[in-house]
Design goal:
Largest sheet of chain A: 6 strands, antiparallel
Oligomer: homodimer
Largest interface: A-B, 33 and 33 residues
Bound molecules: thymidine-5'-diphospho-beta-D-xylose
Order of helices and strands of chain A: EEEEHEEEEEEEEEH
EC number (chains A, B): 5.1.3.13
Subunit structure (chains A, B): Homodimer.
CATH topology of chain A: Jelly Rolls
Helix content of chain A: under 10%
Number of strands of chain A: 13
Distance between the termini of chain A: 38 Å
Radius of gyration of chain A: 17 Å
Number of helices of chain A: 2
Function (chains A, B): Catalyzes the epimerization of the C3' and C5'positions of dTDP-6-deoxy-D-xylo-4-hexulose, forming dTDP-6-deoxy-L-lyxo-4-hexulose.
Low-confidence stretches of chain A: 168-179
CATH superfamily of chain A: Jelly Rolls
Pfam families (chains A, B): dTDP_sugar_isom (PF00908)
Number of domains of chain A: 1
Catalytic activity (chains A, B): dTDP-4-dehydro-6-deoxy-alpha-D-glucose = dTDP-4-dehydro-beta-L-rhamnose
Strand content of chain A: 35-45%
Shape of chain A: globular
CATH architecture of chain A: Sandwich
Chain lengths: ~190, ~190
Amino acid sequence: MGQIKVEKNVGGIEGLAVITPTVHGDDRGYFMETYNENDMKEAGFDINFVQDNQSSSTKGVLRGLHFQKHFPQCKLVRAVRGDVFDVAVDLRSDSKTYGKWYGVELTAENKKQFLIPEGFAHGFLVLSDEAEFCYKVNDFWHPNDEGGMAWNDPEIGIKWPHVTGSYPGNADASGYALDDGTKLTLSDR
Amino acid sequence: MGQIKVEKNVGGIEGLAVITPTVHGDDRGYFMETYNENDMKEAGFDINFVQDNQSSSTKGVLRGLHFQKHFPQCKLVRAVRGDVFDVAVDLRSDSKTYGKWYGVELTAENKKQFLIPEGFAHGFLVLSDEAEFCYKVNDFWHPNDEGGMAWNDPEIGIKWPHVTGSYPGNADASGYALDDGTKLTLSDR
Ligand SMILES: Cc1cn([C@H]2C[C@H](O)[C@@H](COP(=O)(O)OP(=O)(O)O[C@H]3OC[C@@H](O)[C@H](O)[C@H]3O)O2)c(=O)[nH]c1=O
Ligand SMILES: Cc1cn([C@H]2C[C@H](O)[C@@H](COP(=O)(O)OP(=O)(O)O[C@H]3OC[C@@H](O)[C@H](O)[C@H]3O)O2)c(=O)[nH]c1=O
C-alpha cells in the first residue's frame, strides 16, 4: 500500500534511515500502520524482527550506548510518548563512516522512526518529563554479549542537545560515563 | 527467557489468551519485552506477525466490531496509553463456542495483551479520556474484505461496561449501530 515516507542514508551513513508513517486522522482520533512488512520490503528493507521492546524513562535519562557483539541487532525505534534524542554510532569495521554518529529527535508527535542496521551502537536521551520508547529488534537479547560505550566519548563527539554543565567537550572534568544509570541535567528547551 | 505469563482459553473460548509481560522497573523507569517470538513459541503460539498498528481515540469511541472474511487476522492487542475494554466474538463456524464473546480491560497500567486468533470479530471501547492502542496482525489489511457487526447485536449480547442510556437490551429504541463512528456516552467509573 506504500504508506511510509523513507529517508535513506541519513547523515551520509549508509543503511541508516528515517521512516515516517502515514497518519489517518478522523473524528475518533487517528490510525496508523507503525510497521508493514510489505512496505518495508518495497523500500528495500527485508528484515525479520523477532522481538519488540518498550521502556519508559524520565527526563535526562540516557539509555545507551549499547550494542551486541556477536548477535548484532538491527533496530527500528520510535517514541510513543514524549520526546527523545536518538543516536546511532557506526561501528562497522568495514564502513567508510566508521565512528561517525547521527542523531534525530523522535517524538510521539512527529511519529518518526529510526532504522538502525546491525553494527551500530545505539542510545537515546529523554528530553521530555517522561518518554515511552518502543522498538523492534531482529535478534534476541543476549545479556552476556552486550557491549557499551560512553555517551560522551570524546573521539565520537556526539552533540547531545540541551545538556547543561561541564558537558560537552570537558572530558577531563568528571571523566566520561559509560552506560547504565546515566542521568543528565537538561536546560529548558 | 520466559518473560510472559499466559492465561489460555480465557472465557472458556479456545485459542483466546491473555498475556502479561514481565516489567523490569528501576530508577530510570521500566523496561519490558512487549513481544518475543521465542516466548510465544514456547507458549504454543507460532504466529507470523507482518503488520503493527496504532490508533488513538477519545472516551466513548468504539472501534469495531471488525473482521476480515477471506484474509482473517490473528491479533495481539494492548493499550499503551489509557484504558480500553477489548472484546472478541467467536465467529468460527466449527467452534463449540460460536457466537460467544469475551471482554477484558486492557490498560497502559496493567500492560495486559489480548491474543485473538483468526476467525473472531474484534473491537474495543475507550474508557479513559484518551487511549492509544497498539496491535500486531498476521495478515495485511484488505479493505475490500472487511466485515463488521454491531457492537450491540442482541444475539451476541456483549456487556460493554459503563455505557449509560438506553443500552443495553433496548434494541428497539434506536436499532443497533454497525461499526464505524460509534461514540457512546459513558458513566463515571
Ligand atoms: C535489552 C533487554 C533488557 N532486558 C531487561 C534487563 C534489565 O532487567 C532491564 C533493563 O535492561 P537494560 O539493558 O538496562 O535496558 P536499557 O538501558 O533500556 O537498554 C536498551 O536501551 C537502549 C538500546 O539501544 C538497547 O538495545 C537496549 O539495551 O530489562 C530484557 O529482559 N530484555 C532485553 O531485550
Ligand atoms: C485497519 C487499517 C486501516 N487503515 C486506514 C483506513 C482508514 O483511513 C483508517 C482507519 O481505518 P478503520 O478501519 O476505520 O480503523 P479502525 O476503526 O480503528 O479499525 C480497526 O480497529 C478495530 C480492529 O479490530 C480492526 O482490526 C481494525 O479494523 O486507517 C490502514 O491504512 N491500514 C489498516 O490496516
